[in-house]
Amino acid sequence: MAPDGSHDSATERRLDARALRFALIFPALLSAALVLGSVLISAQLPDGVVLPLGGGPVAVPVFLSVGVVAIMVTGAGLGSQGARTTLPRNLRRVLLGVAMTLQLSAFTLFVAALLGQGAHGGRPPERVDGFVLLMGCGLAAAMGVVLALTFKPDEQWTPADDLALAHMMVDQNDPTEANDRLGYFLHPRSSVVLMILLAGVFPGAFLALISPWLLLTTVLAALLMIALLCATVSVDRTQLEVKLLGLIPVLVVPCHSVDAAVSLDIVARDYGGWGPRRHSGSATFLSYSGAAVVLRLDDGGKAVVSAPTLDVADDLSAILNRRAGKTPHQR
Fold first, then answer.
1. Are 234 and 241 in contact (CB under 8 A)?
2. C-alpha torsion sign, points 40, 45, 48, 51
3. 258 in the same domain as 206
4. Are residues 315 and 199 in the same domain?
5. Residue 113 near residue 50, CB atoms below 8 Å
6. CB distance 228 to 275 below 8 Å
7. Which end of the chain has fewer beta carbons closer than 10 Å to its terminal beta carbon, N or C?
């Protein structure tokens, strides 16, 4: 073992101590409850007890030993695997839930055997009390589901945490860079939306004389064209990203590939037109003519993105210029 305790730290990272304590203590308490319960009714079992799976009568201590082993193997044996942080989070939840169900079911089975074979006030004894077994196993299944859904595995340090720590250090060392995040929604101007809808509805109205489906097709085509002009734009220390309707990435520019950015008042046709476009090593997303940010990339290409106003375009270009040529770990 390393003198600085590094071995202990590595072990703690591989095991969730809270989950491990629960996996060991809960079946131990169940075993203690089984033993205590058997003491209370042992006078009703002078000839011993038949194990739940059958066979001849055995002494109560032997019966209890088998029960305790069953509870500990299903509870501590399986539940302790849910404490392993190297396993996926959802698998750990399932393991603990299954362990809860199995150990409670084992406890119920042996309790049902004790109650079924004890004195019943003149009623014939049963190897297992079916009512107790049914009710107990139902509760066991419910408890297993509840535990699987509510258990929250301990968060472990991941590469994402390293990146978050680096960002936090940047925020502390340079408050300006803490604001290097910007996002907005792009949509065509109302006049453009109206023009596109009219261009779809008017021809469709005449074509509807042939088939109503043609009107529906032209309207859907107009709506699709409008959708192709709507997107979310977001930028942080890592990249500039444009997502069509906020869902489909159509333009991604890493900050380290940016040489320079400038805000301009442009005409869309000078950069290929509206919507997402790629041509001659350049990529653009323009919803209209007007404010935009033009990026010069280190491979000689260009990227152009619309902005709601020139002020927003100025902010976006300022962020990109601060982050130009930098990886996420650089300030």
1. yes
2. negative
3. no
4. no
5. yes
6. yes
7. N
41: its two tokens: 């009714």
Domain presence at residue 134: yes
Report which of 182, 296, 303 is spatially closest to residue 238, judged by C-alpha positions.
182
User: Residues 74-122: pLDDT tens digits?
Assistant: 888 888 888 888 788 788 888 888 998 999 889 888 888 888 877 555 5
Residue 11 and residue 100 share a domain: yes
Place of tokens 């949509």: 187
Decide if 132 contacts 112 (C-beta within 8 A): yes
* Structure confidence by residue, pLDDT tens digits, 267-297: 888 888 888 888 777 888 888 888 888 888 8
CATH of the domain at 178: 2.30.29
In a domain, 276, yes or no: yes
> Which amino acid belongs to residue 203?
P
Q: Is 329 domain-assigned? A: no
Tokens 């969730």 identify what position? 16
* 328 in Cβ contact with 166 (< 8 Å): yes
Polymer length of the chain: 331
Query: Residue 112 sits in which domain range?
Result: 6-150
121 backbone φψ class: left, alpha, beta (φ>0; ψ -120 to 50): left
- Claim to verify: residue 172 and residue 303 sit in the same structural domain: yes
Shared domain for 165 and 312, answered yes or no, is yes
Strands (E), 209-301: 231-235, 239-244, 248-254, 258-266, 275-279, 282-286, 290-297
Q: Measured between alpha carbons, how far is 113 from 106 in angstroms, rounded to an integer?
A: 11
Within a 10 A sphere around the Cβ of 265, how many other Cβ atoms?
10
